[in-house]
Specification:
Blueprint: H1 4-12, E1 15-16, H2 17-28, H3 32-41, E2 46-47, E3 59-61, H4 69-82, H5 84-95, E4 99-101, H6 102-108, H7 121-130, E5 134-139, E6 143-148, H8 156-182, E7 192-193, E8 202-203, E9 206-207, E10 210-214, E11 231-243, H9 245-259, E12 267-276, H10 278-286, E13 290-293, H11 294-298, H12 300-314, H13 322-333, H14 339-359, E14 364-373, E15 376-386, E16 390-397, H15 407-426, E17 435-442, H16 448-460, E18 465-469, H17 471-480, H18 484-495, H19 498-510
Parallel strand pairs: 11-12, 12-13, 16-17, 17-18
Antiparallel strand pairs: 1-3, 2-3, 4-6, 5-6, 7-10, 8-9, 10-11, 14-15, 15-16
Helix pairs in contact: 2-3, 4-5, 5-9, 8-12, 8-14, 9-10, 12-13, 13-14, 13-18, 14-18, 15-16, 17-18
């Protein structure tokens, strides 16, 4: 029979010990000392280690609740009520599906990198790891990630969701950067966005997704005979969720703490998301933060294209009709600075999968499949299975027209990835009788040395096949396709001559509105 403490905890759900004691007093008429003793001595409930609450209270839960949505929501709310540092770290992680790159955790958790009296992002991670709430895992194609510890290593679907968010947010940050520069909100050449330039943007003691100095009147400080001291524009982004007040709290903490730093100039603080819950929107306005959405900044069409991009990248199975969406996404987003390169890298594998789907015999095609072995893990961009016949492992490298693939990339594929994939494939009983084929597809150009490396490797082995599909081969495959959208996207964004690309850019710039005529005052 469950004891009184277990029954009470099962009724109210995971909570701090003070709440459970109060429930025992109210529901069962126990004295405060008796209730505390029963909670302390109970062996049927679990106590979270390494995380203490005020008055030495502990977070309590049943083993059956560990890792459940109720567990994480209750723990995050209790932590935010008592410790913004640890609560902010969990809130940021949960808002991003329970997994994110370690490099982004320092931005999203809301803690200063180094500031007296505050726990740093590294300190938060260490404490959460000690409490066995999170783990650090190296995910193929992404790198070191922090993940909720109740889940095993992220599978292909979870990695696809994370990659979709990261790619889409990177395109969005490029758009926000363009917007801020074109309006003159920031110094044109001094805006930084995350994952560019080898360091994360920093203002004060905090990292941001985007930041830049601003000399706008309300932000900059000007004194006679002295250089003006700039203020700053800072921005964080989160796509894929309707942001709640709990998920916004880490950003609010960054903003309010930054304002307390007297040596840092005034800041315009913006958070960009797909949408907000009413409480989150009200919280942002109350705290003097701009709660922007992709639609309010860039209009319905761009916001819709960003969502369609995320949906495309989340889908690990190619479908008929998908490539029309790819073409539409390129049309809406490729004008954003830096977006075209991001889109090429992210969407080239969809182009490859569509070509394979329409031109090759297969039973199953899957993108971004993760294969694991004792030696490590590797991600297959496009995996093609023909039952009891062959398994094709296709490496995809999308480049701008005329771009050159580095020799080192080809060497790594031949010397590291193929052996790792072969070892992982050997453990799959369904592939024992299948011929293994390793293919390198690129819209770029390989140097003669790289082509010679691939040819030599293919000639040396007879146990498996090695194949190169270059931009020349892609052109022929595209012509053989009946998919008009695929042909258009392939030619315009992957294979078109660089001079043609430059001409299209020049034409796009000429489509801008003409300068209005001068006023009468200006002509006198």
């Amino acid at each position: 029979m469950p004891d009184l403490v277990e029954t009470a905890l099962r009724k109210i759900g995971p909570c701090v010990s003070t709440a459970l004691v109060a429930a025992l007093i109210k529901e069962h008429g126990l004295t405060a000392d008796n209730a505390r003793q029963k909670v302390s001595r109970s062996t049927s409930i679990k106590k979270l280690a390494h995380i203490l609450f005020p008055h030495r209270a502990r977070f309590l839960y049943l083993q059956s609740d560990y890792g459940s949505p109720d567990f994480w929501v209750a723990l995050t709310r209790e932590l935010l009520a008592n410790s913004v540092s640890y609560g902010g770290g969990l809130a940021a992680l949960l808002a991003r599906g329970g997994a994110m790159p370690v490099a982004h955790f320092a931005i999203a958790c809301g803690a200063p990198v180094a500031q007296r009296g505050h726990v740093s992002p590294a300190g938060i991670l260490e404490r959460l790891k000690a409490a066995q709430l999170v783990q650090i895992v190296t995910e193929p194609g992404i790198g070191e990630c922090v993940e909720l510890s109740h889940q095993s290593s992220a599978d292909s679907y979870e990695l696809a969701r994370m990659r979709a968010r990261l790619h889409t947010e990177q395109v969005l940050l490029g758009a926000v950067k363009d917007w801020a520069r074109n309006l003159g909100l920031v110094s044109y050449n001094k805006v930084e966005i995350r994952d560019e330039g080898g360091r994360q943007p920093k203002v004060g003691t905090f990292h941001w997704d985007m930041a830049g100095p601003s000399y706008l009147g309300p932000l900059a400080k000007r004194a006679a005979n002295a250089k003006p001291k700039p203020g700053f524009l800072v921005c964080d982004v989160l796509l894929g969720v309707n942001v709640s007040s709990v998920e916004l709290r880490p950003f609010i903490n960054k903003c309010t703490t930054l304002r307390s730093l007297t040596k840092v100039g005034a800041c315009l603080q913006i958070f960009v998301a797909d949408g907000y819950a009413p409480q989150a929107y009200a919280l942002a306005k109350e705290q003097g933060v701009i709660p922007a959405t992709t639609e309010t900044l860039f209009g319905v069409e761009v916001a819709k294209a960003l969502r369609e991009l995320a949906e495309l990248l989340r889908d690990v199975y190619p479908r008929a009709g998908t490539f029309e969406k790819v073409d539409a996404v390129f049309a809406q987003l490729s004008h954003i600075e830096g977006a075209a390169n991001n889109l090429r890298g992210a969407l080239f594998e969809y182009l490859v999968a569509e070509i394979v789907r329409t031109n090759s015999v297969h039973d199953n095609i899957q993108m971004n499949e993760v294969l694991r072995s004792d030696s490590g893990s590797a991600e297959v961009d496009v995996l093609v299975e023909h039952r009891n016949q062959s398994v094709r492992f296709i490496e995809c490298k999308g480049y701008r027209p005329g771009g050159t693939v580095p020799d080192e990339m080809v060497e790594r594929w031949l010397e590291d990835r193929i052996p790792l994939l072969r070892k992982a494939a050997a453990s799959n009983t369904f592939w024992q009788k299948c011929r293994l084929e390793f293919e390198f597809w690129t819209s770029g150009t390989l140097t003669p040395a790289a082509e010679a490396l691939v040819a030599a490797a293919a000639a040396r082995t007879h146990k498996y096949a090695i194949k190169l599909v270059s931009s020349r081969d892609l052109a022929a495959l595209g012509k053989a396709s009946n998919n008009t959208a695929l042909k258009k996207t392939l030619q315009e964004h992957f294979l078109g001559h660089p001079l043609e690309k430059a001409d299209r850019v020049a034409q796009a710039s000429r489509r801008r509105l003409a300068t209005p005529p001068a006023s009468q005052l200006a002509t006198r």
